[in-house]
Amino acid sequence: MDKYVTRSKIGHPSSSSTHSSTALTIASKIQSKIFISDVDLESLEADPGIRKPIAEYNSNIRDDIRRYYILKKPCQPKDHKFPKTKFGKKMRQFFPDWFNGRKWLEYSITKDAAFCLCCYLFKNECEIRGYVIDVAFTKTDYRAWNKATERFRAHSKKEKSESRRRLSASVDVARFLLKLGLSFRGHDESRSSLNRGIFLELLQWYGDINENVGSIILEKAPKNEMMCSPSIQKDIVDSCAKETIKSILEDLDGDYFGILVNESKDVSHKEQMTLVLRYVNKEGEVIERFVGIIHLTLVALAKKDSNVDDFFCLVTNVLNIVGASFKRMDLLWKHQAEQLEELLILGEVHTGRGLNQECGLQRPGDTRWGSHCRTLDNLIVLFPSVIHVLEFTGCECPNYTYRLIAKTLMDTIKKFDFAFMLHLMWKVLMMTN
């Protein structure tokens, strides 16, 4: 109990005064830990030696302070008379020429020391993630003017080197996944997730077995340069695709080639067209290289319109009723033959080899883009015969459900709306077929 309660002694001031003094002590301690939440940007110190650390400001205004210092540019007093300091037997001083080409370098007049603006602005965020920051330009003052040029060069090169290693690690992981055709993203990529996706998990494994890489990637990298965001992953994939196509074209060397095209439908029910380049190389070997996938969105986008979607649904129902039995298909074929004979007698159609071929009602396939066009084309040609079959089904079919459906479909396809949509979609698909 003595840990939490202070004993009051006889003869001392009253408990109220004790409590008030204790409250003042606690308040002073709390006050010392309160972050600065409101500040006048114009009153911020320009001298890096006397600035308040960025961590002392409230997190809600840190970005405003960073933006202010970036727009204000680093503190580089080139006209200042720099004092000399003795190193060994020689006097050394800061030279204003060192500012040239180093936008990150700052000089404190009050402390006669060099600082790094970038480290000051982002050091706190990087330290939270375990990223190692050079304290010589942030917490401690750098005054070793006898080795300044080498130290400045090493400080700037370190950032570039780590950035390149970070990017190289992401590229290596992306190339491995592309080679095996594996997905990159995960369902939950948060830090608490047990499976963050193949890309991040493989990158983490890469860092675990390589200490030089593991110390600079993912959470240990600067927040604005982690090189593993979805946009960075897409850029890496696009770059790999361009380099691959460039390599294929160099191997082709302007010779003859063929393009293999295949239409299919992926698991997300999106129509797509696959392109493969086929050629013979200089060694006489037949080479087939996958070029890419083109998503065929015309039919998919058209079906998003309710009128178009209803139209294709109606066409499918008509084809199902007409082609439901061999008897109806026989009736369709006989009626079409009679129509053709009548047109030949009247001279409205020409005769010759390859003309007036038999056509059927092919159902549009989801995996074949051009099948929609062929279906509508045949439906226009066989439209009178389709009406005849629906009339027969509506009167002679023993199943009352089919009779009702046939009569309803026949009344619907005779309307202007169906005829207009039939010819409209046929013309649109003919232009892209």
UniProtKB/TrEMBL annotation:
Organism from which the protein derives: Solanum commersonii (Commerson's wild potato)
> Where does the record place the region Disordered?
1-20
**InterPro entries, A to Z:** AtLOH3-like (IPR055298), DUF4371 (IPR025398), Znf_TTF (IPR006580)
Q: Which domain of life is it from?
A: Eukaryota
Q: Where is the TTF-type domain?
A: 90-189
The protein here is known as TTF-type domain-containing protein
